[in-house]
Amino acid sequence: MNLAGESVAIVGSGFGGLSTACYLADAGADVTIVEKNEQLGGRASRLEEDGFRFDMGPSWYLMPDVFERFFGHFDRTPSDYYSLQRLDPHYRIFFKDGDEVDILPDLERNKELFESYEEGAGEELQRYLDRSEENYGVGMEHFVYTDRSRFRDYVSLDVAKNARGLNLLGSMQDHVENYFDHPKLQQIMQYTLVFLGGSPNNTPAIYNLMSHVDFNLGVYYPEGGLGGVVDGIVQLGDELGVEYVTDYEVTGITGHEGDFLVHSGDESMAADIVVSDADYAHTEQELLPPEARKYDADYWESRTYAPSAFLMYLGVEGDVDELAHHTLVLPENWNEHFDQIFENPAWPDDPAYYLCVPSKTDDTVAPEGHSNLFVLVPIAPGLPDGDAIREQYREKILDDVAENTGVELRDRIVFEKQFSVSDFADRYNSMQGTALGLAHTLMQTGPMRPRHRSPKVDGLYFTGSYTTPGIGVPMCLIGGQHTADAVLADH
Question: How confident is the model at residue 446 (pLDDT cuts 50, 70, 90)?
Answer without folding.
Answer: confident
